[in-house]
Fold these 4 entries.
Entry 1:
Amino acid sequence: MKLSNRLNTINTLITESYDIIWDCCCDHGFLGMAILKRNLADKIIFVDIVPALMADLSKTLTRFSCAQTAKQWQVKCQDVGCLELTPSAKQLVIIAGVGGELLLKLVQQIIINNTNHDLSKLSFILCPVHHTYSLRKGLHKLGLGLVTEQIVLENKRFYEVLHVSFESEQPISSTGTIMWEENNTAHRMYLCQLIKHYTRMINKDPVYFQNVLNDYQQLVELKT
Ligand SMILES: C[S@@+](CC[C@H](N)C(=O)[O-])C[C@H]1O[C@@H](n2cnc3c(N)ncnc32)[C@H](O)[C@@H]1O
């Protein structure tokens, strides 16, 4: 099965092994299955809130598992916000394909619910649909730092993929830093789209959206 451009980018950002990788809001589970094939974690845990999806995924995984790989995956049907992380394990939590506001809420809940654990070995790969600016601000506020970030174009839509952790001391900027490639036409198009979008939003909350706009316009100035 061929992964979409967006899911493939997330997959390639995983360059080290983990005790546990959580494929959250996994839906069909394509991403987790690709990670399972790469043998990158002792356990891949698939999580989604829809029972029928998780029942289908369990069947598919069982069909393709041998005695060895059967121990390497688990399916949980639950709210991602209620994840119970494993204390002291090196864990990667992936959340992709949901709105930026929900995504931030889920990350906040995971952290609050697991504050008793040492979170230094925890990192997240996140790919929201829209609202990346407010997500980035929220992640920074939580004390997370940037590991890496990329812009992905899929079906004429732009996405930002962020790898963040508590160990990284590189601040997460609201508009992105290392993901912007100079002279990349698609990236310029994405920046134009963001500026047009936030210009349209100004009337809704002039003070907030003017600040957002100023931040993106500063990027344009840096690039010209
Ligand atoms: C569009 S799919 C994303 C699938 C895949 N991660 C991707 O990026 O292609 C969004 C999934 O998020 C799940 N979801 C939404 N809110 C959730 C929550 N609070 N906890 C668990 N799953 C959730 C939905 O059931 C749905 O299957």
Entry 2:
Amino acid sequence: MQPTTVDCRCGKVRLHLSEAPVAQFYCHCEDCRAVTGGAYAPLALFPAGGVTVSGGDTATSTYRTTPRTRCAHCGTLLFGEPPGMGVRGVSGFLLPAELFKPAFHIHCQRAVAPVKDGLPHFKDMPAAFGGCDEVIGW
Ligand SMILES: [Zn+2]
Ligand SMILES: [Zn+2]
């Protein structure tokens, strides 16, 4: 992947993405719903070292277990960093369409707004992420 930069909505904070994403998906968990105010969240996981921040101030807060970092000026959600995984989950809302290519949905058993598309809908998570690997049919 070519190194890419994405900005928060106000343009004060810039994310530098220097490595290819390791996974891209939509998450339907309560955490993502509570934090984003949406029915599900588009996420691209990058190696943590491949996501750096420059520019304005950021603010990091933890709702339950995952610290999430926002622009301190406009509040745009930039990324979450689930403890112990070595990844940063960048909000898919920030990524250009040619970069954000979600391959599946996770935590679908808790979804409030099922999405009928051609992607696999995992009940919790794929086996590669430590989940049961079961899919549900929407
Ligand atoms: Zn901002
Ligand atoms: Zn989630």
Entry 3:
Amino acid sequence: MRFRHRRAFYVLYDGTYLVLFSAILATMLALGWQGLTPTWAEFNWWWLLALPLVTHLHILASVFIHNCSHGNFPKAINRLVGELCGIIVLTRYASWEIIHRRHHKYSDDLDKDPHPLTKETAGYWKFTWHTITNVERQLQMQFFDLYGDTEENRSFEKRRAFTSYATNIVLIACWYVFLGPVGFFLFFLPASVIGFLHINHFNWCTHNAHKPEEGYFPVNLDHGYYWVGNRIWFGIYYHGYHHKQANLFNPMRYEAFQKAKAERLAARKAAGPRA
Ligand SMILES: [Zn+2]
Ligand SMILES: [Zn+2]
């Protein structure tokens, strides 16, 4: 992981984005860019029928950035797809990767998992609120895990967090100017909010929120709504299998993959020891 190799990685990463987004924003403003979408005067309400599609694409960006964080795209494009999706879902790729790796390492540990499902965070809204307030804390904790929890590191991380917040604001301003008010307020903003609530629901239900009496751990869901979700979002609700084997783009293929692997091994055994 890149952030393990260099102490200043994350601040340089977000700092680079801050400069890049500021330059794009300044260029759009200097050129008098009118926005991708038409003005309110030209707006037709039936365009809102496209909102479910836009939301679906936004959710797909989350599905893809998740796959990127496990290196599931071809190596040549994995980082590129991750960075592009990170711009769409606003978090940027690096923080997504840091937070998600932590989730796999410390699943449902109240103190160390960025979005643990526990007795303390059991309800959906409680869980969502805990995630919102916990993510920045976890980014800092992973830094202290690597480099030590010292006075100096605390102020270093404070400056880094400030850079990240500034980058967020400039990125959102870029989207606003690029799309124009109609595209931003009627499509991008609602899709972002629904997408955020959706990913929290995903994190919540796939750690067995529906059956608290069994305890909280990654599970596979494939009934009702989840059946549809698995068919349009690459098997995301097969989350139990995903925690077992994260390098499958579609964890629904887990059983087929394991079966094929066992058959290969059996065939090799049957062929006998090689000379
Ligand atoms: Zn999980
Ligand atoms: Zn994962």
Entry 4:
Amino acid sequence: MTTSSIERRALPSLYAEFLPKLGRISIVVHLPSQSTWTTKALISNDGERLIVYHERISTEIILPTAAKLRGEHLPGEIPPGLFKMSWRLLAQDSLLTGGLASQPALIPEVAPWSALVLRPRTDVLCRKCETVVVSRESLKEWKDLPSENWAEMMEFWHCHKPVINNDQRNRADSSDNANDLKASESALASRGYGANTAIFAQAGIGFVDLTRMLFHKEDCRCNVMFMNNADIDPNLTLLNTQTHRSISTVASCPGCNAQLGVYDTRKDGVSIFKWMLKFADSPANSLSMLRPPTLSHCLATALFATQERTGSAKVVLQGDKEAITAWILNPRISFSCNSKQKVSAMKLLWQNRGREEEEELILPDSIVKDIRGLLQEGNSYLPPDEKMKQFNAQDGVWTVALLERPEQ
Ligand SMILES: [Zn+2]
Ligand SMILES: [Zn+2]
């Protein structure tokens, strides 16, 4: 067989998924042509790799965790004529066998770039162009937004969607609706959402939550564009709680003009997404600081936290016009496929629509679009017949995706 004929041939698709809770590795192999008596699937001597021989070509992946089975064919004879084969293997270390490798599964979730791992007196840079966004002189301390504050904030967003569309705005003129607004306002105030209890940005302090960093406007060099009419840029609408008037803001990089975040009128500070920032490559910075979290890492952390807090596996990623419903199937797996190996991930289902009744994370439309791209990419890693799921006709088809999580 010549090299070119090998190159033209499609390779088998190999996929392995480790479920730490069950201590099992699921393996799925799709062949580009029917199996023959010479098709073989085996595990390497160290238990670390899956190797498939088919039509004189060997394809292999590193398993997400080592298998108990070592240096052997996968159980069962492979008869000719198959396009798909699947196995379930025991992991070398699992919760069931009490092995060490299972320990990471027990470590509680830590958000990437929490205040604990960040050092002050360091420049905060735009990840794209490395322009200084907050200088070391003005950054004296990092603080986590208190988790109860985070929870309250989430609850606030959830019960009180910070977007007023034209329709509602018009209807708010009728006295009934105005009373409703006032009623909900005082209800919020009595539950501690009044302006006096809110956390405000403070000079010298970088506040961090699961996905963002909040800086005082005088510490942050971002260009902030205020637009008093939400219709100018409906992508970035925040509600001013005092006036109930929508104010659109964009916080953009002073160097490359990329949108890094928004001006948060509730907290009176610049709120920047962690995945838009980086720290200088300096020995003074901790290792965690030099491993900047991706959008995927931050989203997985936020989804996980929402599920932990509410018990609901469905979360709506709500933009102004864009919406995605995410449904967490398994918050913690690891997988390997032909293109990526040993990746920690969350397995979820998603649909291109919002849902009134579910938990919401309010995001700019541009971020919801980025997330859609991420989920489409996360769908491509799955075996061909595990990309879609439908439970009933009414609910529609769900797309399956793997969302990469930070390594713990
Ligand atoms: Zn409300
Ligand atoms: Zn920039």
